[in-house]
Amino acid sequence: MSEQISIYDTPSIDALRSRLAIDPHRVHRVRTLFMKKFAGQQRAIEELPVEARDTFTEQVGFHPLQLDVRLDSETDGATKLVFATAMGKRIESVLLRAGTGRTALCISSQVGCAANCDFCATGKMGFFANLSVAEMLDQVVQANEQIADEGRTVRNIVLMGMGEPFHNESNVYEMLDLLIDGKYFNHPANRVLISTVGITDAMLRCGRRYPKVNLALSLHSVRQTVREQLIPLARKFPLDELRRTLVELNALQPSTVMIEYLMLAGVNDSPEDAAELIDWLADLRVHVNLIPYNPIEAAPQLLGSSRAVRDSFAGQLKSAGLTTTIRYSMGADIEAACGQLVQKMERKRRAITSQE
Ligand code: SF4
């Protein structure tokens, strides 16, 4: 069979539609059912004339990803989805069901990651490939299909899974264009969040192009040496440049920038660290999110701060007037932290292969 056209490749779909003499409204209804109602490929295809269905199904690819594993947390509302790409690589998405009834989805933008952050299981895997537009969108479609029988749909989409989104910038923008376009997913831009370790030029390009899309900066320390130890890319994007970028973003965007701060025992969690963070963030419109750390095998030197330390750090920021939350860590029992499960599965696969 020749290579399939992606359902998101509009010019090719239009050409096929015209060849098969399908009314454009029918293709529009296929898109609506598949991308807005998440009714599934089978149901969407029923919108086409009977005589065109087989050819359309044969020639159009709806799901570039194959769902490999679904793991539901027994302790909270998290579900991890592990997908296989056409190259046979694995990526992860995580569904988070909040007590409020809202559902968030964390998606991956790359297979592995070149940023090599010290605390991150994905970074320790190295980089394999950028995800295509269709592969990113398929995470949204398949996650929604998974929760359809619960009467839920994904409300918030966060690019915080495997990969640095701004290392796959053009595909991420093309994906965003389809996500927020009324003819495709019609997902509100202000319910999308992109998390970056701080690629400053891309943050500004994104802020200009999508003023309503939220940005999160993984800051983790306002000491340059500590930040460089945690995030090697910090050498290229120093703290003073990051601060100037945040000032500019605040002028470009109506929303606040989320500052992500991983709480690491003895590394960045002292009262002095909090005081320096408060100074650094002065006059910026930001929301600080303190993140409890899930230790990973590849970085045994890093441990999470105790709850008492986290609470006191948060208290110090709040007293200084900073909007501060402590992220409730979901899915610890299903290794929901980015890259952990995939890394474990890959290790197991390699061990089995080497025994064969
Ligand atoms: S934290 Fe993000 S940018 Fe850093 S290695 Fe992990 S996936 Fe890449």
List the helices and strands and how they pair.
Layout: E1 5-6, H1 10-19, H2 24-36, H3 41-45, H4 50-59, E2 60-61, E3 66-72, E4 78-84, E5 90-97, E6 103-107, E7 110-112, H5 121-125, E8 127-130, H6 133-147, E9 156-159, H7 169-180, E10 192-196, H8 200-209, E11 214-218, H9 224-230, H10 239-252, E12 257-263, H11 271-280, E13 286-292, H12 307-319, E14 323-326, H13 340-355
Parallel strand pairs: 1-2, 6-9, 9-10, 10-11, 11-12, 12-13, 13-14
Antiparallel strand pairs: 3-4, 4-5, 5-6, 7-8
Helix pairs in contact: 6-7, 8-10, 11-12
Bound molecules: iron/sulfur cluster.
Structural class: alpha/beta
- How much strand content do the residues show? 15-25%
The outline comes out as elongated
Major β-sheet profile: 10 strands, mixed
* Separation, N- and C-terminal Cα atoms: 32 Å
Spell out the CATH superfamily of the largest domain: Aldolase class I
CATH class of the largest domain: Alpha Beta
- For the biggest β-sheet, the strand order reads 3-4-5-6-9-10-11-12-13-14
CATH fold node name of the largest domain: TIM Barrel
Q: Roughly how much helix do the residues carry, as a percent range?
A: 25-40%
GO cellular component, one term: cytoplasm
GO biological process, one term: rRNA base methylation
Protein name: Ribosomal RNA large subunit methyltransferase Cfr
Pfam family, one: Radical_SAM
